[in-house]
Amino acid sequence: MTLPQPEIHSLLKDQFVVGWRNIEREPWCGLSHGYSSRQTAIGTTNGAGGRNVQLFVLAPDLTVLHVLAGFWHPDDLRAELSLAQRLFALHRDATRTREEKWRMARAFHDQAIQQVSAATLARSDWQSFDRSHEIWRAQAEPRDTVRYVNGAPAVDAEGAVALKSLFVLQHERAKTQLFLPYARFDVERFVDYGLEHYDNNRMFDRSAKNFSVRERLERERQRKAKAASS
């Protein structure tokens, strides 16, 4: 689900109904080698592994209230769950029009971006291989992952293309799919950042699980793409 912490587990247990779904067959799922069920991910950053892990907060009618891609630090996840609860209260507010709810929901996300702490931004940095790949993609087409100034990509202190924090990126993308039914939410668009081939845990732990189904589907996708282009 995300990084383990007793307070978060208690919050989810007391105020949410927790479920899960296997996304191995979904086209947006990253092609990678995973961790066994007895392992926990530690020391990663917010948004890491976004193609393989998504945390949806749904209303009882399966409306998407909030969504986070990848692993999240407990302190930041706690704040995001609080935001989801505010969005749930807004969703069920019968006194407001749909347009008012959209406007207020966008304001909630804007407020989160404006008030984000330096510590959260530091925990939401890109992993080096995802950063390199995203900068490479930005050379071919405009990307919402990039910070632009006067229509041109901004650069950081080292002269490289400046990417938005993954915290900022996910809130900006969430604003474009407000209060959609879960079945209509475009997950592939939401998690479209970084490498599709994510972390190869096989390099570190021989007990890593191979996603054989995902690998087979990827080989089939590549075969069809090659046939279509020939």
What would you note in describing this structure?
It contains 8 helices and 6 strands; from the N terminus they run αβββααααββααβα. It is mainly alpha-helical and 230 residues long. The protein has 2 domains: 6-125 and 165-229, no CATH class; 131-164, no CATH class. It is globular, with a radius of gyration of 19 Å.
Question: What is the topological layout?
Answer:
Blueprint: H1 6-15, E1 33-34, E2 54-58, E3 64-69, H2 74-91, H3 98-114, H4 118-122, H5 128-138, E4 148-149, E5 152-153, H6 166-174, H7 187-190, E6 209-210, H8 212-229
Antiparallel strand pairs: 1-6, 2-3, 4-5
Helix pairs in contact: 2-3, 3-6
Question: What are its keywords?
Answer:
230 residues; mainly alpha; 2 domains; two-stranded antiparallel ribbon; two-stranded antiparallel sheet; 8 helices
Number of domains: 2
Q: For the terminal residues, how far apart are their CA atoms?
A: 42 Å
* Count of discrete alpha- or pi-helical segments spanning 4 or more residues: 8
Kindly provide the radius of gyration, computed on alpha-carbon positions and rounded to a whole number of angstroms.
19 Å
How much of the sequence lies in strands comes to 5-15%
Query: What general outline do the C-alpha atoms trace?
Result: globular
**Element string (H = helix, E = strand):** HEEEHHHHEEHHEH
- Spatially, the strands of the biggest sheet line up as 1-6
How helix-rich are the residues, as a percent range? 40-55%
Biggest β-sheet: count, sense, barrel? 2 strands, antiparallel
Structural class: mainly alpha
**Chain-averaged pLDDT:** 87
State the low-pLDDT regions, or none. none
Number of strands: 6
